[in-house]
């Protein structure tokens, strides 16, 4: 199966799916079926499946809970890779990659880590979201002046708020830095997300990498 087109309004847009993406594996196993077979796998996956597509000369995996990704068309199946191993989608997260025209990029998970809900100020600092962090610190401080219990309530409310709004804050901040949406990659860890993206774009550099490393990479 191949995506013929990914018009506006289809879920594939938010996952960075592109026209020509050809399904090669589902949950790590080679796939040679039709749309009905894909739906059967999705129904048996318990919510989400890891969909691997061939994009140019590379493979990209995304987590999806729908097949309403775009307009599908049947194409001859690609040669199966006997080395494939099953992937449990429960252990993966979608990571969104944003990129600038100069090749600098950043990435972040679509699902907020549990630690970020417990320590929202620390997570905001790690993500370089300075303005939201300053606002939260000020709100917690003001709550502490009124009553320590109020400060705890503000702190807890911030964690709940971030759970649904963290991606918006990150996108707004990164757009202000000149980055725009590039793609989505489903992997387990941030290190794997960087490795997967660099496999697609070897010349690109992490926007927050130390200046010395960025300079070395440019001269390499």
TrEMBL record:
The keyword Transmembrane helix applies. SUPFAM superfamilies: PDZ domain-like. The chain crosses the membrane at residues 129-146. InterPro entries: PDZ_sf. It comes from the Bacteria. Keywords: Membrane, Transmembrane, Transmembrane helix. This is PDZ domain-containing protein. It comes from Paragemmobacter aquarius.
């Amino acid at each position: 199966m191949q995506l013929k087109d990914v018009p506006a309004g289809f879920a594939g847009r938010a996952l960075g799916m592109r026209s020509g993406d050809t399904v090669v594996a589902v949950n790590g196993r080679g796939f040679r079926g039709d749309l009905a077979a894909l739906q059967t796998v999705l129904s048996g996956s318990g919510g989400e499946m890891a969909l691997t597509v061939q994009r140019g000369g590379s493979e990209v995996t995304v987590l999806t809970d729908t097949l309403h990704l775009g307009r599908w068309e049947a194409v001859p199946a690609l040669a199966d890779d006997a080395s494939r191993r099953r992937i449990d989608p429960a252990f993966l997260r979608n990571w969104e990659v944003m990129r600038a025209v100069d090749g600098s990029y950043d990435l972040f998970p679509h699902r907020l880590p549990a630690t970020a809900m417990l320590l929202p100020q620390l997570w905001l600092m790690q993500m370089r979201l300075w303005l939201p962090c300053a606002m939260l610190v000020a709100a917690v401080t003001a709550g502490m002046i009124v009553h320590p219990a109020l400060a705890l309530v503000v702190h807890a409310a911030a964690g709940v708020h971030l759970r649904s709004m963290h991606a918006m804050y990150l996108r707004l901040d990164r757009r202000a830095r000149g980055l725009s949406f590039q793609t989505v990659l489903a992997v387990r860890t941030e290190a794997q997300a960087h490795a997967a993206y660099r496999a697609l774009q070897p010349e690109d550099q992490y926007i927050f990498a130390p200046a010395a490393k960025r300079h070395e990479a440019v001269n390499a």
